Amino acid sequence: MRTSIVYILVSTSDDFFYEQTLISAWSARYWNPNVKILCVMDELTDANLTDKRTSLLEIIDKKIVVDLSEGGTAKYTGKERSRMLKTNLRSYVEGDLLYIDSDTVVCCSLDDVDSFQFALGAVDDAHGTYWGYKRWNDSLVRYRVGLLGKYDVSRAKNYFNSGVLYMKDTEEVRKFMKVWHSLYMTGQSKGLSFDQPSLLVANTQLDLISPMDDIYNCQILSGGLPFFAEAKILHYYNSLGTQGFCSLTDARLYSKIKKSGFLDEDDKKKIRLAKRQFADRYSFVYGKDLKFWNSSLRHLFHDSPKLFGICEIISKVFLKILNFSKQ
Question: N or C terminus of the chain with fewer C-beta within 10 Å?
Fold first, then answer.
């Protein structure tokens, strides 16, 4: 495989981003033994890759350390530093590359990436379903785009997920990345840490991103089921509501790796058989239930159980009144 695989790592000993990256990089190396794997990181992360945080360095071919200390290291959050590196990635790495988020696992050879003809590729956010394909009409996205300036994205063809990006080393891609980075920094100065709204605006202006086959960024919880069987990269999302649905999202796994500092044989088996690592109890959510899944009530259930309990009691009263009125 001639195309390099690139990760970005911004992590401290208090989070699990290092452990996530270790899992993903190991899977990439296992299925692609000859690929060049690079890891771009900030100076703070580089400084804490010691003791039990060094196994990753044995898997990757090279670390690229970027000093983001200008203006004070405390100026940016870890999330912001990570996005700063991602949006400016083309400035740090030479040659064609496949950028992969850390909350992923590679499931097979990626050799066919070398045959990609497009200059810049990505997969639709949520695979173009429900809140993905029309997402630029979403009020929250419109608000976030508004923080970037007065941009019209109403005619956008796609709302891309930035978790897996293919980039050729061309002038047009470098120009695109400079625009994306500039837009991101504008949003960041206004408190916007997300990078996909700025990616949307950049592509609306330059129209360079080509849709990749969905199997290169199978977003399991967001429309990815049709692509799961053939998925080359699983994007499993270690976020709200995902803890425990897959053993690779389980905090206990990350804690164990953090404690030992390496992947044991059981860990490696789970990674090799990533498509089998799901909870034995689960259910599909679709239709009207999907509306609740994406509602503020579900977030309230996770973030404020006590307040949700009060809402639940009130809801039961209203349901009784409603049922009584129907009699």
Answer: C
What's the whole-model pTM score?
Answer: 0.87
End-to-end C-alpha distance for the chain, whole angstroms = 69
- 313 or 177, which is more confident: 177
